[in-house]
Specification:
By secondary structure, the chain is α/β, with parallel strands linked by helices. 20% of the residues lie in helices and 29% in strands. It has 3 helices and 9 strands; from the N terminus they run H-E-E-E-H-E-H-E-E-E-E-E. The strands form 2 sheets. It has a 7-stranded mixed β-sheet. A two-stranded antiparallel sheet has the order 5-6. Helix 2 packs across helix 3. The longest helix is centred in the middle third of the chain and has 19 residues, at 69-87. 35% of the residues are buried. The mean pLDDT is 86.
């Protein structure tokens, strides 16, 4: 039997605090998400990953990182677990817990990290040497032909009173979340992307 990670214990505590109808999924021979919960009669699956790499973090000086890399890495790691839920026609969420720079939990998991990892790096159009709008460009982990099994990717964060969750919509999801039925304790960031379905 495997031991729950710090992030999994935090998520279970979060669910109990807000009265979410959740259940731990037993570990088996094939990849599966960690949990499932019910939202408006829809079963939603949740995979939880935690960032432990301190690469680029220098607590005593200047830190550097590529925007979105931590989140991109977690999306790649969670792909098989999320696909298992999608094969059963269920929406699924990847939640990422940042264990690296506590108490802030923001190095590599700020809002722009999620958007850049999911939809691509912010790119500015130049016309005649002047900025003429911007768009999400290269290094997108989600698009119409890739990772459509992810309904959302989000941040699980420890707070002074427990935890909070912010999720970012995957506009290309094959199985979208029932946003109107999600509990109020989950902060939802709906996303507009050019050329989205």
């Amino acid at each position: 039997m495997s031991r729950d990670t710090e992030s999994e214990l935090l998520f279970a505590s979060y669910c109990r605090t807000y009265g979410l109808d959740f259940k731990r999924i037993a570990v088996g021979p094939k990849p599966t998400p960690d949990y499932r919960f019910s939202a408006g009669g829809v079963e939603v699956f949740v995979e939880i990953k935690q960032i432990e790499s301190t690469r680029g973090l220098n607590p005593n000086g200047v830190s550097s990182r590529t925007v979105g890399n931590h989140v991109r890495s977690m999306i790649s790691e969670a792909r098989k677990q999320i696909q298992a839920a999608a094969r059963e026609d269920h929406p699924s969420i990847l939640l990422i817990y940042n264990k690296v720079d506590e108490p802030f939990q923001s190095f590599g998991t700020e809002s722009h990290d999620f958007i850049a990892a999911m939809y691509g790096e912010l790119t500015v159009r130049l016309v005649d040497g002047r900025a003429s709008g911007s768009y999400q460009g290269r290094n997108a982990k989600l698009h119409p032909e890739k990772n459509t099994s992810f309904s959302a990717v989000g941040h699980l964060r420890r707070t002074e009173v427990g935890a909070d969750v912010t999720i970012y919509e995957n506009v290309y999801a094959k199985w979208p979340l029932p946003y109107a039925s999600l509990p109020n304790c989950i902060e939802v960031v709906r996303v507009e992307v050019e050329n989205a379905k």
